[in-house]
Structures are given as structure tokens and as C-alpha cells.
Amino acid sequence: MWKTSTLLFTCFLCLISLIGKAQTAKNSPFSDGGSKIVKLYPNPATSRINFELQNNNDQGYDLIVFNFLGKRIDQIKNLNAKTTVELDKYYSGVYIFQLRDRQGNLIESGKFNVVK
């Protein structure tokens, strides 16, 4: 039962990611197919991870982080050009981030690993 639930949840997250990418390509002003707005490093991370906006055109972005089970872990409002997130409260595992504009539209999503 646990394996089936995990598999279904993983498929659900993949579907959300694909829908988000489709919306990003349709709604994003950077929809040339390969442009990324946010760069994150290091990945995998141990104690902190840096999020760097590539095209900060004075638009306010929010960064939302979810654990692999879909629970919201962190939210950073009005993301700066370079933001460092301390990972003290994060466990080892895979996390999903979403970059959203002020209206709540999904701009970009991705994942990163925490290794402790």
C-alpha cells in the first residue's frame, strides 16, 4: 500500500511540474524555451542554498519551497536578486521550489537536494 501511494504521489508531482512548465512557457515573457529566471547552487546543498535571479526586471517574485510530500516548508516573499536560504530546518531529501509573480502565477519550478 505504501509503495502504491508513493508512486501515485510521485506521478501527481510530475504532472504538476509538467502543467507548471506548460503555463510557464505560455505566460512567461522569457518563453524562448530555454531561459531560466532563477539559478540555484550548490545542488545538492548541505547547509545553505543560493537562489539568484537572472533577469530581475523589478518584478516582485515569491519563492515557495515544498518537501517531496507536497507540504509547504518555506516561503520567501519579494525575492532579492541573490537570496541565500539556510537549510538548518531542512531534512535530507528532495525539495521542490516554485517561483511565482505577485499575482500568484507560476513562473518557474524546479527541485533541489539537501544532503546532511
Automatic annotation (TrEMBL):
Keywords, in A-Z order: Signal
Organism domain of life: Bacteria
Signal peptide boundaries: 1-22
Entry-linked InterPro entries: Secre_tail (IPR026444)
Domain Secretion system C-terminal sorting positions: 40-106
Alphabetical list of Pfam families matching this protein: Por_Secre_tail
Keyword Signal belongs to the record: yes
Stated name of the protein: T9SS type A sorting domain-containing protein
Organism: Chitinophaga agri
Taxonomic path: Bacteria, Pseudomonadati, Bacteroidota, Chitinophagia, Chitinophagales
